[in-house]
Specification:
The protein is built from six helices and no strands. It has helices at about 1-35, 50-70, 75-90, 100, 105-120, 125-135. The protein has one domain (about 25-135). By secondary structure, the protein is mainly α. The longest helix is centred in the first third of the chain and has 35 residues, at about 1-35. The radius of gyration is 17 Å and the shape is globular.
Length: about 140
């Protein structure tokens, strides 16, 4: 049992970093799609972008970059968790109770992963850890 506890103690902080990196990488593309039209989407609208979508795109792209690198992980993740909660209720909840029915699964999942990261931090492979451990 001690070996298993050692395994968990060694790998939990590392896999926290992997979760953060993959989540940030995936999230960046939502903002990139809104801001730069890449990757192309069948849902792209012609004309000027509504301000709320522009703000969401900025938060998704730059917040995703900060999450990817693990810089300011806790406050950025908390902000992004709120963004995804708002996105769920504004864009999905009115289309049905269950996220499976209303297409909001991704928003809910991002919301709770970011909420977790806002408490857990960026893990051992993050700029936060690199910066803050040097000061101590």
């Amino acid at each position: 049992m001690a070996d298993l506890n050692t395994f968990y103690a060694t790998w939990t902080p590392r896999l926290l970093s992997v979760l953060r990196i993959i989540t940030g990488f995936l999230f960046i593309w939502h903002g990139s799609q809104k801001l730069f039209g890449f990757p192309p989407s069948s849902q792209s609208a012609e004309g000027p972008m509504p301000p709320i979508i522009l703000v969401a795109g900025i938060l998704e792209f730059f917040g995703g970059l900060l999450i990817l690198f693990g810089l300011l992980t806790r406050p950025v993740a908390f902000l992004l968790s709120g963004l995804m909660a708002v996105a769920y209720f504004m864009a999905h909840a009115s289309a049905g109770f269950l996220p499976l029915q209303n297409g909001g699964e991704t928003a809910v999942l991002y919301c709770f992963v970011f909420l977790f990261l806002s408490v857990a931090g960026g893990g051992v492979w993050s700029l936060d850890r690199l910066i803050w451990t040097r000061e101590n």
